[in-house]
Write a structure and sequence with these properties.
Elements: E1 13-15, H1 24-28, E2 53-60, E3 68-69, H2 70-77, H3 83-91, E4 95-97, E5 100-101, E6 107-108, E7 113-119, E8 133-138, E9 142-147, H4 164-171, E10 196-202, H5 205-217, E11 221-229, E12 236-240, E13 243-245, E14 253-255, E15 263-272, E16 276-283, H6 290-297, E17 326-334, E18 341-345, H7 350-363, E19 366-367
Parallel strand pairs: 10-17
Antiparallel strand pairs: 1-8, 2-7, 3-6, 4-5, 4-7, 8-9, 9-10, 11-16, 11-17, 12-15, 13-14, 15-16, 15-19, 17-18
């Protein structure tokens, strides 16, 4: 019996073109690692629907409240209203305190009368935007691209930033799985804004549901590369630490005993003296910021991570860390149509390679060949 033909491996290709924006200082230093001016080259802004106030809330600051910033107090008072809606109302000048427009820095006091016109919480609708993307694999069912650092995976509420979804809607002529919803067609997993590397989207609803099931069942295998602070003493390990929202800083995640299960395997591939290391991470779960939180938890935060690390200090002056130095290197999954395993790989981008070579030159390099 003739064996079925294997699907052809698509060659990486570039979509569209866009000029590279460079500053005068960057041109003078083109032979040196780039400074912290990330995402210089961005496509045009994406069109969004105008947000209109749909709910007016009037209240008075209770006497038992301590004076505090408007964003903190209003979020506490308006139970059930998301912080993003409150923040947007403040940014749009839709909050009045004693009849005067307030912003997030306005200090509210007990007895102050406030009036908030909350913007509609309706989700954004993605529209096609022509932009440059590198396609790593494509067929009639799925498409995988190399996500650049600085680009969102999908559009977000009240923002005109472009995303992978905007670009692929243009490239595929709208052929992304509608099952993902209006703002996230075809999206089956996400990468943080500053993370680069492999991301796959579904082009049909059948492929969408099959891929979502794989990620939920943890059968899709993900491998990331990270440049971390300080060389770990051990060469490999497992981080089994639950993750949930930080108790006080809601935009951050944190290790919490009462959080959701989160497991990450890791191994060292290179050490740069005792100052830094190249680590390969294998997340078995998909919590928000999981690798960033876990590596910081074992005291090796990712270089350039200004949320979970401490990199705006004199000891790192001159270190070329334009972003969170995390790259989605490899993704292995089962093709939703053929049922065959497919592995998609892409090497780290220029900024990641530049920092790696800079560290090796400054502190020396020791490589470790470990079994996969």
């Amino acid at each position: 019996m003739a064996q079925p033909k294997k699907p052809k491996k698509a060659q990486p290709k570039r979509l569209g073109s866009r000029p590279q924006a460079r500053t005068a200082k960057a041109l003078k230093r083109k032979n040196k690692p780039a400074p912290h001016v990330p995402y210089a080259a961005r496509p045009a802004k994406a069109p969004i629907e105008e947000l209109r106030p749909d709910e007016i809330v009037k209240t008075r600051i209770p006497s038992e409240f301590e004076p505090a910033r408007a964003d903190k107090i209003i979020a506490m008072l308006l139970d059930g209203v998301s912080r993003s809606r409150v923040q947007k109302a403040l940014e749009l000048g839709l909050v009045k305190v004693n009849g005067q427009t307030a912003d997030c820095r306005t200090v509210l006091n007990p007895g102050d009368a406030i009036e908030v016109a909350l913007p509609s919480p309706g989700e954004p609708t993605a529209r096609p935007v022509k932009m440059t993307l590198e396609v790593l694999f494509e067929d009639a069912h799925i498409i995988a691209v190399n996500k650049p650092a600085g680009l969102l995976t999908h559009p977000v509420q009240g923002s005109d930033e472009v995303s992978i979804v905007h670009g692929l809607l243009h490239y595929t002529k709208g052929k992304l799985a509608p099952a993902g919803g209006a703002p996230r067609p075809g999206v089956v997993h996400r990468l943080d804004r500053e993370t680069s590397g492999v991301i796959v989207l579904a082009k049909t609803d059948k492929a969408y549901h099959a891929l979502v099931a794989q990620f939920a069942a943890r059968t899709a295998k993900k491998e990331y590369l990270a440049l971390v602070d300080k060389a770990p003493r051990l060469l490999s390990g497992v981080i089994n630490a639950n993750i949930d929202r930080h108790r006080t800083v809601r935009v951050r995640m944190a290790v919490r005993e009462d959080g959701r299960e989160a497991i990450t395997d890791w191994r060292v591939e290179e050490k740069y003296g005792v100052e830094a290391a190249l680590v390969r991470a294998f997340p078995h779960t998909g919590r928000t910021h999981q690798i960033r939180v876990h590596l910081a938890h074992i005291t090796h935060p990712i270089l350039g991570d200004r949320t979970y690390g401490k990199f705006d200090v004199p000891s790192y002056t001159g270190w070329p860390m334009p972003r969170v130095m995390l790259h989605a290197h490899k993704l292995t999954l089962t093709h939703p149509q053929t049922g065959k395993p497919i592995t998609i790989t892409v090497e780290p981008p220029k900024d990641f390679q530049e920092l790696k070579e800079w560290l090796a030159k400054k502190f020396g390099r020791k490589s470790y060949l470990l079994p996969a």
